[in-house]
Target: Lysine decarboxylase DesA
Amino acid sequence: MSLAPRSDHLFSPDNLDGYVEAMRASVDHLAATVRGVDGPATGASPEQVAKLVTDVDLDRPVGDLAAALDEMSRVYLDDAVWFHEPAYAAHLNPPVVLPALAAEVFVSAVNSSLDTFDQSVGGTFVERHLVDWTCARIGFGPGSDGVFTSGGSQSNLQALHLARDAALAGAADGQLPRLRVLASADAHFSVQKSARLLGLGADAVLPVPIDADRRMDVAALHRLLAGLDEVGLVAMAVVATAGTTDFGAIDPLDAVAGACAERGTWLHVDAAYGGGLLVSARHRHRLAGIERADSVTVDYHKTWFQPVSSSALLVRDRRLLVHTAWHADYLNPEADERPHQVEKSLQTTRRFDALKLWLTLRTLGPDLIGEHVDTVVGLATRSHAHVVAHPDLEAALAPHLSTLVFRFRPPGLTEDAADALVPRIRQTLYDRGQALVAATKVDGREHLKLTLLNPAATDADVQGVLDLVGAVGHELLAGEGRWSA
Ligand SMILES: *Cc1c(COP(=O)(O)O)cnc(C)c1O
Model:
C-alpha cells in the first residue's frame, strides 16, 4: 500500500485529462464573467472586499475547483477592475494581446525558471534573442545585452546599481556619500527609492529643472554637472525619462547624452512608458539619442500590451552587467561555461515572461504593436482638443504620449475649490463604477489624469469620460449649494 498522498492534481502525463478540464473550466469561467462586465469597476469599497476575503477560512478547502472558482469570483473577480473597458483610463494598464495569454499557458505549466540553462534550455535563448532584438531596436551595437525583469522599478534599480558600482570601481574608499544621481523632477519615484536601497544619501537624487513642456532642461543639467565637479561630488548617473508617467514627456535624449558624454557620466534612459515607440513607425524618431544611453528600461507590460510582468533592462555594453554577476557553487560555479541568465539578474528563480513577448511578435509582429501605440497617442491628442473646447475643463499641458492631465474648473471657480473637487470627482466616478481616472499634482495644484492605453477605445468613449467628469463636477457643486450649473 502506498503512503503517498493522492497526486491526481499534479501536472503530469498521468493527469492530462484533469489538466485540460481544469483549464477549460477556468477559461469558460473567465469568459462568462467578462461577457457580463458592463463597466470598468463595481465601486466596491476596501471594507467590503476586505471582509469578503478575510471571511474565507483557509484551513477548510471547498474541495473542488468549480466551487473554488465560484468563491474566487465573490472575493475577487466580481469586483475586479477591467482594463479592456473603454472607460478605464487611470493608470498604465493596457488590455493584453491574445498570443501573450496563450503563452501564459506554457509559462505556468512548463514552469521553466530562467536562472540557469539546465532549468530553461531553449528559454534562455528565447529571452536572449528578444533582448538582442530590443537592443537592435534601440540602436545598440552587437556588444549590448540585458535581461528581463519584473518591471520598470526593478529595471531602474538594477541600472542604478550598475551605475553605482561602475562609479565606485577603482575609486578610493569612502566615495559612496559623494555620489549623486540627476533626474528631472518628473522622473519616476523608483529612481529615489533605488537610490535609498543602494545606500546613497537621503538627498543623493538632484532634481534637474524642467522646461515649459516638462522636459529636462539641458542647460540646467550642464550647470548642475559642472557645479558637482566644483564641490568634489560625483555624478554617478543621469536618468533621462522617455515618457514621464504623468505627462509622457520625453527628455531631449540626444542633448542629455551629449552632456553625459562630455564627462563620461552614466546615462540611464527610463523608457518604461515610451519604450513602445521603439516599434512605432510614426513616433520612433522621438527617441533619437536613446542609442547613446548606457542602460535603458523598457516595460513591455505597458505600451507593448503584455500581461504583468514583462520588462527589461538593456545595456549598451554587456561588460557593464558584471556588477550583477555572482557565482554559487550549487547553481552556476565559475568553471561552468553554460549560459546562465542568473548572472545578469537580481532575481534567481524567475518566470519565463519573455515567452509572452515571443508569441506576440511571432503571431502579430512588431508593426501591429507600433500601430496600437500610434492609435493611443492619436486618441490623447484628439481628447486634448475636446478638453480645450470644453467650457468647464482645463488642460494642464498638451499630451506628449497618451496621458491627458486636466481638471474641472468652470469659469469663476477658484483654484482652491477646483483642487478640492478633484478627489471627490474621482471617488464618485469609482463609486458608481462608471469610469476610472487617475489624479496627480501640477505645480502644487490637484489635477485629474487620463492614461489612454486601449487601442480599441474610440474618441467618443474618451469624450464620454471627459463629459462625465464635467457632469459630476457640476453635480458635486450643486450638492454643496455653492454653484448652479
Ligand atoms: C511605470 C513606470 C515605472 C515603473 O515600472 P513598474 O513596471 O511599474 O515597476 C518606471 N518609470 C516610469 C517612467 C514609469 O512610467
